[in-house]
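Thread: Newbie trying to understand structure tokens

Hi all, I'm a second-year student working on a class project, and my supervisor (Dr. K.) asked me to get a predicted structure for one chain before our next meeting. I've only ever worked with sequences, so writing a 3D structure as a token string is new to me. If someone could post the tokens and maybe explain what I'm looking at, I'd be very grateful. Here's the chain:
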Amino acid sequence: MDSEGNGFPWYAVHVRAKYEKKTADALVSKGYEVLLPRYRERRKWSDRTKIVELPLFPGYVFSRFDVEVRLPILKTPGVLSVAGIGRIPQPLDPHEIEQIRRVTAIDHPAQPWPYLTVGQKVRIIGGPLTGVEGLLSQRRGETRVVLKVSLLERAISVHVESDAIRPL
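---
Reply by user tm_fold:
Sure, no problem. This is what the structure looks like when written as tokens:
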């Protein structure tokens, strides 16, 4: 289906844990356009190793629908709510959804990632600085962690690979 789809905006539908696929299938069977981006991960059990498909956004399914007629969505098995501000559903940014669709359409490797913003407190989880905590910063396209000495009102900025930091 083209990016215009049914003309309605995309919404994030909050679903029960591990119900993403079942809920997406149920919404499709009701005639809704659905996007359930997934990724592959190798899982190891005691007796075998298997590649499994998991949702890129656990707990969410994206769908297009008329928000004024959302009762059929809310009555779908597994659906908890439509994401928004308070009880008011908010449409997703069309540009963000289009980017996700492009990545998943070509089956490009992707994986869930913590949502980080500049100024957020982070901890370094890899390399020689493991355990160091500071504020996330960016300079000339580089990911950096700012460490401060409050008493002196001074700080230093350390370059860190983005996959080596996690939010606190």
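A couple of things are worth pointing out once you decode it. The chain has two domains: 10-105, 121-167. The CA atoms of residues 11 and 76 lie 15 Å apart. Feel free to ask follow-ups in this thread.
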